[in-house]
Design goal:
By secondary structure, the chain is an alpha/beta fold. The chain has six helices and seven strands. The protein folds into two domains: about 35 residues; about 140 residues, Glutaredoxin, CATH 3.40.30.
Length: about 190
């Protein structure tokens, strides 16, 4: 290297770093100002002129009909009241911790509906679990995982807070306590 190029190197490096930083900043500003597309546009199902049905915040919750331990349930019939939809399994340790919180919520906040959807287990296993944990809210048996697929479930426990109009307002990935659930549900109670 010549003396001239060694002298330019200390100046060029900070300029390259500054240029890189400014480029990233401009790119970020362009993305923020243009906005990102809503995933529901790509993952949801169209309902004519209405909102799309998708397992996303701000979209209509996917409707389902399923067997419970005591009969059956149709989620469309629950419109008009807040709904807390929890996906769980008996082998899931965080789910076991969350069951007492869901029961407390069910007993405390009677203006909201709590439904637990069991993933892939038999009705007898779910019934034994309900007895062991003294659960009185509706427990859905989803042995084939059809409801889990509707909600594109990532893992359990996962809990969806659904407004009276059927839109998903909040999603909890992982265990949460009754206070967090109540905080998410209170704005939905009229």
């Amino acid at each position: 290297m010549t003396k001239r190029s060694r002298d330019e190197t200390p100046v060029r490096k900070p300029l390259l770093l500054l240029g890189s930083f400014v480029s990233w900043l401009i790119a970020l500003l362009l993305i923020v100002s243009a906005g990102l597309p809503e995933r529901a546009i790509y993952t949801g199902v169209s309902q004519g002129d209405g909102p799309r049905v998708a397992p996303e915040i701000g979209s209509l919750a996917p409707p389902f009909q399923a067997a419970t331990l005591d009969g059956s349930i149709d989620s469309a019939r629950l419109l008009g009241q807040p709904l807390l939809l929890n996906f769980w399994a008996t082998w899931c340790a965080p789910c076991a911790l969350e069951m007492a919180e869901l029961q407390r919520l069910h007993e405390t906040l009677q203006s909201a509906v709590v439904i637990g959807v069991n993933l892939g287990e038999s009705a007898s296993a779910v019934s034994a679990w309900a007895e062991a944990y003294h659960l009185t809210f509706d427990l859905v048996v989803d042995p084939g995982g059809s409801i889990a697929r509707l909600y594109a479930l990532r893992g359990q426990p996962s809990t969806y807070v659904i407004a009276p109009d059927g839109t998903i307002r909040h999603i909890f990935f992982g265990a949460a306590d009754a206070a967090a659930f109540i905080e998410a549900l209170l704005p939905l109670i009229g």
